[in-house]
Design brief:
The protein is α+β, with helices and mostly antiparallel strands. It has two domains: 17-44 and 79-294, BirA Bifunctional Protein, domain 2; 306-394, 3-Layer(aba) Sandwich (Rossmann fold), CATH 3.40.50. 37% of the residues lie in helices and 21% in strands. It has 14 helices and 16 strands. The longest helix has 20 residues, at 17-36. It is elongated, with a radius of gyration of 27 Å. The chain starts with 16 loop residues before the first helix and ends with a helix.
């Protein structure tokens, strides 16, 4: 017997069906909302030429990037995020303007795995490229709100700021103010180079751009209690140029679940000209964790709706015919694939897989041209004609 130790690589994960179904539910829900707002799907390769990615994320990003030579001795790297590949796509192809895309794909970072941090994880972005309009910024926020509501979240807040609020401040002081919620006012004041900076920032009023964006949010039908101005919010200031925002969910303390803003200088990095852009990224793992904590997943995420059992080898053809009819009617159906298995074992299998219904076709059912349908949750059994059974699952 092999002595191989079976395990995933550090920072990488398997998703067994129970987990995978929840992930797929979130992906499917987000896709529907994104497409509702006119965003189209984009997919880019897992591998890029190293020069495309290198130097775009700072020294830390370069250290965390998976880089190697392929069999043709080309220098390549695994995708570190979705934004730089988006910039390459915009520069490489003739695309309609504005270009509105969503992208849900894995990315890879060779960082030290810890709670909520992995070396392979799913990123979920929406971006509008080619528009400087504040309505483009507002639409990103509106789409974010709609997406979270579609997932079942109710008590959350979009915190909004403008990058220009911090004009003239050192990057170090900006980073300190950004930690206000995490370390508190006293610690922030201790670390700032000038203690008056915090009061100055906290007393800031809406910038002209944010006034327009807030009016656009009202025009787009967003309730005022869903968003607020937070002048101390200071995320990602290395490349953001205008509005920035994060979303916090009441009852979930691990941090923001969505973040983004305007970044007019990043997308044009390959074309040599400024290309206005705005967008955001959904923290996929955090959203899953928050949904789990708040009990927002539907109780029934089972993909298979019915198991057609096989009573005996002699009656297998009857079960096969019914399974084919159910599948032709677009009912997700599993057929038991052994001819002489005790019915109890088949029922136990359906129970383990949380298949909600089991169909039994025994000698009595064949004689009467009926089937027995068992509800695995209530354990109730009913007899139907095959035609009635099909209508039950298709109506």
């Amino acid at each position: 017997m092999s002595s191989m130790k079976l395990q995933t690589l550090k920072g990488f994960r398997d998703f067994l069906p129970g987990q995978a179904k929840k992930r797929q539910y979130v992906v499917d829900t987000l896709k529907k909302v994104f497409e509702l707002y006119g965003f189209e799907v984009l997919e880019t390769p897992a591998l890029e030429y190293e020069e495309v990615l290198l130097g775009k994320y700072g020294d830390e990003g370069d250290k965390l990037m998976y880089r190697f030579k392929d069999r043709g001795l080309r220098k390549v790297a695994l995708k570190y995020d979705q934004t730089v590949p988006l910039a390459r796509v915009v520069a490489q192809y003739e695309l309609p303007t504005p270009f509105k895309r969503y992208q849900i794909q894995p990315v890879w970072r060779a960082e030290n795995p810890q709670k909520g941090r992995f070396r392979e994880f799913l990123q979920c972005d929406i971006d509008t490229v080619g528009l400087a309009s504040p309505y483009a910024d507002a639409e990103i926020v509106v789409c974010t709100i709609k997406a979270l509501e579609s997932l079942g979240f109710k008590d959350f807040k979009v915190l909004i700021n403008d990058r220009t609020v911090f004009a003239g401040m050192s990057p170090a002081d900006i980073r300190i103010i950004d930690k206000l919620k995490k370390i508190g006012q006293e610690k922030v004041l201790e670390e700032l180079s000038d203690k008056s900076l915090l009061e100055k920032i906290e007393s800031q009023k809406l910038t002209k751009d944010l006034e327009v964006i807030f009016m656009a949010l009202e025009d787009l039908g967003v309730e005022k209690n869903k968003y607020e101005f937070l002048p101390t919010l200071a995320r990602g200031l290395d490349y953001y140029t205008g509005m920035i925002f994060e979303v916090e969910i009441a009852g979930y303390e691990a941090g923001s679940v969505v973040g983004g803003g305007r970044y007019d200088n990043l997308i044009g990095m390959f074309s040599g000209k400024q290309v206005p852009a705005t967008g955001c990224a959904f923290g996929f793992d955090r959203i899953l964790e928050a949904m789990q904590k708040l009990g927002l997943f539907p109780k029934d995420l089972t993909t298979t709706k019915v198991l057609v059992t096989v009573f005996s080898s002699e009656l297998a053809s009857d079960s096969i015919q019914l399974a084919n009819k159910l599948r032709d009617a677009k009912v997700n159906t599993e057929l038991w694939l052994e001819g002489d298995t005790k019915l109890d074992k088949q029922l136990k299998y359906a129970d383990q897989k949380e298949i909600p219904y089991v169909v039994i076709i025994g000698p009595d059912e064949v004689k009467n041209n009926t089937v027995t349908l068992k509800n695995m949750q209530t354990k109730e059994q009913q007899s139907f004609s095959q035609e009635t059974l099909l209508k039950k699952f298709t109506d």
